[in-house]
Amino acid sequence: MTDTQQASSSSHSAQASQPISPELRRWVAEQMAAGHSNTALRQSMRDAGWMQDAIDAALGPAAVAAAPAPPAPAAGPAGPPTQEPGPPLEGAALYVDAGDRQVQVLLTMKHPRVVVFGDLLSDEECEGLIAGARERLARSLTVETKTGGEALNVDRTSDGMFFTRGESPLVQRVEERIARLLHWPVEFGEGLQILRYAPGAQYRPHYDYFDPAEPGTPTILRRGGQRLATLGIYLQEAGQGGGTTFPDVGLEVAPRRGTGVFFSYDRPDPSTRTLHGGAPVLAGEKWVATKWLREREFA
After folding, report:
1. Partners of 253 in beta bridges
2. How far apart are CA 290 and CA 262, in angstroms?
3. Which residue has the higher pLDDT, 22 or 296?
4. Structural contact between residues 141 and 150, judged by C-beta atoms closer than 8 angstroms
5. Across residues 238-248, what is the average pLDDT?
6. Rounded percentage of the chain residues whose pLDDT exceeds 90
7. CB of 84 within 8 A of CB of 228?
8. Regarding predicted confidence, which is higher, 30 or 63?
């Protein structure tokens, strides 16, 4: 990120009141125009010594007005984007409207923000996604935040592939259901990823957001901003093992077919307690569909 020193020098000269100067406004606008997220800018200003009230003032409505407007979301049942993705769970709802079906709420947790959904996909939909992905599988890669590219990672031993958005009627139907369920536009999501975990395969605990401190993160963020949430859907149950674990809170979700595990992270920081992993498959094969949701349109 460029010109952080400018923000730092402004803060040291105004520790008492920390006024928001025109120079700081320009710096914020330049960084947002370059693709840096609001979250990353907040962290940069905190690191430079700015107080929270000054950060809020600098990165509030004025910053949004100075930055290029994100593409307007497509009209549809999902509605406009809210502050962060997530289902409406007012009144301890037992079911959530996903457009073409009512989805069960099986578990909720506030910190980390986790929701487990039942019957999110039918057996036929699960089989259809597996069939469409099977011939296109390759060793799964992870996003490499040091370079902005992708690389093999010994912590991830699954095979996988990505569908492009709307690639088939089935993919489109599933994406529209997710958008309605989580109140987040289809265009603000990465393509649906399908993963197969053979016996012994796992994904060791990790975070899904992109670390702002890594040099490759600004390149990654240009494609749609920071990741805000993850939805994993079990397409096939392993004979044994393969649950989704949240080590910080001692939670493990069993991989039952058609069930979805949603969790969100309002900032790219371990304090969100969203460290998670895929436990080793001990028997059979586990198949999973993953949808990552971004700040703005993913291209």
Report:
1. 244
2. 10
3. 296
4. yes
5. 96
6. 60
7. yes
8. 30
Name beta bridge partners: 288.
195, 234
Q: Which of 39, 38, 30 is nearest to 66 (CA)?
A: 30
Instruction: Please report the pLDDT score of residue 158 as a whole number.
Output: 73
Q: How many Cα atoms occupy the beta-carbon half-sphere of 291 within 13 Å? A: 28
Contacts by 79-84 with C-beta closer than 8 Å and gap 24+?
Answer: 79/183, 80/185, 81/183, 81/184, 81/185, 81/188, 82/183, 82/184, 84/228, 84/229, 84/264, 84/266
Give the length of the chain. 299
Closest CA to 261 of 21, 87, 75, 58: 87
Cβ neighbours of 199 (radius 10 Å) = 16
Buried b (16+ CB within 10 A) or exposed e, 3-14: eeebbbebbeee
pLDDT at 9 (0 to 100): 40
Which residue, among 240, 237, 10, 12, has the nearest Cα to 130 in the 3D structure?
237
User: Which tens digits make up the pLDDT trace of 156-179?
Assistant: 567 899 999 999 999 999 999 999
Q: CB–CB of 211/268 below 8 Å?
A: yes
- Gap between the Cα atoms of 230 and 193, Å rounded: 11
Q: Which residues contact 196 (CB under 8 A, 6 or more apart)?
A: 133, 137, 158, 159, 160, 285, 286, 287
* One-letter amino acid for residue 234 of the chain: Y
